[in-house]
């Protein structure tokens, strides 16, 4: 047993165990919504913060590696990748819900003309406050997408501003990430209140979510550069998984009770984000936990977790309409929603998500080819330099 070398980490092109972590996060969110109070100890609601830390880590890692490989971050390529990755499943699921409620004659009674103003502009997290007592529209769980889309919009640009290479650029990235984290954490009192256990509507728009995303960003920066990686390297030893997973699991299963009893909820979420980041280090490193979460079953669910997460609301409605006894929140209800949702998510993954990701990659490749061709043509058009006679020097 040994630690993971920095060069080995940089050589990794995929982190399959992180798909397994996505699978767990999506599953516990569904259990939180539909399994009933007996399973509240699973603290499924906090699963969205696993997604946030993962997003911050993966996006920043990809951008830093692109910067090392090409000398720059292509914002246009990044935004195109995000558009072709995020929008197709999102619009297919949202469109399916709209058609469904329209056919049922509920388009207006479920306030979709109002809701779509938020859902189509990715201000999803502001919708609950705009309609606190409104009817269920089956898509309220998409508030996390509003948070992530704004993160995708601004964070890559800030990394470009921080500079491309060298030790100074590395420290600027750290300073930028820490400053952004401090700002987002400092604004929690303004955006939602410090305690975070009041009405739910303000919590959706809280800047604490961006602070948790930035924890993943800081981890990615630390693991990318050799000097800072040396500080993290002990966590890559297989034996480190025992205390890290133990601490993470202990906080996770007690999160529900601590949330209502301590009054220190901002600290709890930040602690959860930090332990989630430490767990990511364990999961990219060799060991039994990485093996377990990288199994085919876990990766299958994880690769479909995005659509599965968005589908839970409408699938639950249809399941209950088909089998009314499943309207009672209990484990069989949650497992049925999970199974049906995963089946539909698989179809979306195969027929929408994957083809559109490939289309996006082809479009980016064509743009890069055209750009390279234009650069070559411009180089050929430059007049050749004429050497001056020696006597004129």
Automatic annotation (TrEMBL):
GO aspect biological process, one term: lipopolysaccharide biosynthetic process
Keyword Transmembrane helix part of the UniProt annotation: yes
Transmembrane regions listed in the UniProt entry: 20-36, 42-64, 84-103, 152-171, 178-196, 208-225, 237-254, 266-285, 306-326, 332-352
Pfam family, one: Acyl_transf_3
Molecular function GO terms recorded: acyltransferase activity, transferring groups other than amino-acyl groups
One of the record's GO cellular component terms: membrane
Domain Acyltransferase: from-to ranges: 16-348
Domain of life, per lineage: Bacteria
Protein name: Acyltransferase
Native source organism of the sequence: Amycolatopsis coloradensis
